[in-house]
Amino acid sequence: WEGELSAKDFILCTTRDAYWQRKQEAIREGHVFWIWLVDSECYYRCKLVVSGTPFVSIDTGTGERIPDSEELQGTIRVFDPGVGDGRYEIHQSYAACRVKGNTSRKLDKKSYSLKLQDSRGQKVDAPLLGMRSDNSWKLNALYTDETRIREKTAAQIWEMFSGADKELKQDGPRLEYVELVVNNEYLGLYCLVEPVDEEKLGLDRNDVLYKVISWTVPTSEAFATAVAEENSTVEGIRISHPGEIVDYGAVLYPMLDFNERFYINPELDYEEALSTVRVGNLSDVFMFLMVASASDNHYKNLYFAAEVRAEGEYVMKQIPWDLDFTFGNIYDGESGNLARFEKDYRYVYADSVLPRLKFARFEEIGPPFLERWNQYRTGFLNTESILGLLRENRDYLVETGAMRRESERWAECPVTSDITELLEYQENRMEWLDAYFTEWATQ
Q1: How many angstroms separate the CA atoms of 77 and 340, rounded?
Q2: Which phi and psi angles does 226 have, rounded to 5°?
Q3: pTM score, two decimals?
Q4: Using an 8 Å Cβ cutoff, are 86 and 208 in contact?
Q5: What is the SS3 assignment for 100?
Q6: How far is CA 443 from CA 38, 342, 355, 361, in A?
Q7: Helix, strand, or coil here: 27?
Q8: Which stretches of the chain score pLDDT less than 50?
Q9: Could you report the per-residue pLDDT of 314-323, keeping only the tens digit for each?
Q10: Residue 30, C-beta contacts closer than 8 angstroms, at least 6 positions apart
Q11: How far apart (Å, rounded) are the C-alpha atoms in residues 294 and 325?
């Protein structure tokens, strides 16, 4: 909080207030400062509240919320106070905005997709909040998590996995907290999400990126129908890359073959199966889903990236995304916010690919997996590091005042800064995982 307040064409007046000298407390407590904007004919009496988070403001010109079924054009401003040395940045451009997600549409607090544009509707790339330069962004509402820290923490942990083995090129979505205003209505705390695409994963024009949004594994007939109809969607699987498809059969073949090999066919040819995967990636995904208790990320909510080597030959890797149901939160369709906390920390949350490979040849999968786990446990996966991330994200939301405002804005979905039970759950789970993985990898 640097510099001075000023107003164009008005005299700006403030009252005496001890909080002008106690800025950190003012931010944390959401303290209201009274200011007056005065000219010779009129004055405005205003409330000023200072936030410690970045802010996103969207204006579509309608004065109303964005409808569930429409994409609206508007302007977007992203205010980043955290550049450093007392400096800040403001990005401003046109944008196309729409409500995203099947779950989000059921909730009062919506999530959104954004496409940055110029005045002619052409794509505009921008590096928002220190993340990579891109035109496609998401605003996740975090509404199913009463702590608002699960998705951010899970994404940070996967970022550490991808950083531990850069050769795998398995970067997932990065997230940064923001507060959101749409058409002058304050909508609370969100995460701005960086896209997962071919650029991030190092894919070329021959490779394929699939986004899976359903637990249903499509049949061979469903794939055949998609090829015949030249459809880029097969039930819950969407082709994210390439954008322009010439040969639908070739593009869909890696996912068809992978599904039949690992999810449909009970007979697994180990040698052939091993040639289609990167074991390091599968090991990391298995560990991550278990560490984060990712209850909604086995097959569904995974990206599948096929590195195509030659006709009919590919290597598949998985990337997790949409990480709201983590750290004990599980889907509950009867709940008002669609989530409930599962206190039993001993559940197995994992995709089935690596376990199937281990079942076929456990001595070639189990021991290397356990060695990798033990290596990570002495580094970024040590228990105190995980608990520290959870505390750090909670403290950030408290100190910036964002949690207080979120709680006031969405009183029907209570927000809490008390994560005692969550920390206890995670500490017990990490200890349980040590024993579980040791047994899993040696039998």
Answers
A1: 35
A2: -65, -40
A3: 0.95
A4: no
A5: strand
A6: 77, 28, 11, 10
A7: helix
A8: none
A9: 999 999 999 9
A10: 49, 401, 404, 405
A11: 6
